[in-house]
């Protein structure tokens, strides 16, 4: 094996040996040993990426500044124009995943997304009608309560599966760790995604219905007053106790 090895790549000299030559020379790579070939590739890599350290530092700095500025802009937007902020973020969270899942052919997510979108679109349509039907508030409440419970249970199950996998309990049932982890992460994602999306849609529908029936104004003071046993939204008698779940 040669004691001195020097190669010039794209005008850049690299000395990887024990000595130094004043003039670089051409080398037949096919006649070199594996270690010397590795040195040639190493020299080429240095020549190709020369000066990239400064560029990488600039990219990191630009990324940090962009994140800070974007966060400040989002906070100010939310404080000054809450309604437009909620609508834009809701629309993005609802539509953007559709592009990536369609491109990646994730049919399971597309199926659940389609079912959720159809039902929620119908519920939102009913909630924005004027005059508001007496049965609409009950329908809105039932759907989003069901969605909340299903999302909550799905998220809990997904989180539990992830924790059981980390502790190796999946091995008792002869389930591969990667399969168990994928299943748990998927359930956790579905629970979080549809839970947050359902919450935002529920708030939007509630605002529309409140403004329609006259229990909302810019000052925040209601313009109607009803008896304690009458629903303030639909005007129908309350059949169960106020603190009892299922009050619709």
TrEMBL record:
Listed PANTHER family: E3 UBIQUITIN LIGASE RNF121, RNF121 PROTEIN
Segments traversing the membrane: 59-77, 84-100, 106-125, 146-173, 185-202
Stated name of the protein: Ring finger protein 121
Membrane topology: Multi-pass membrane protein
One term under GO cellular component: Golgi membrane
Domain of life per record: Eukaryota
Keyword Ligase: no
Predominant subcellular localization, coarse grouping: membrane
GO MF term (any one): metal ion binding
Assigned keywords, A-Z: Membrane, Metal-binding, Transmembrane, Transmembrane helix
Subcellular location: Membrane
GO BP, sorted A to Z: ERAD pathway
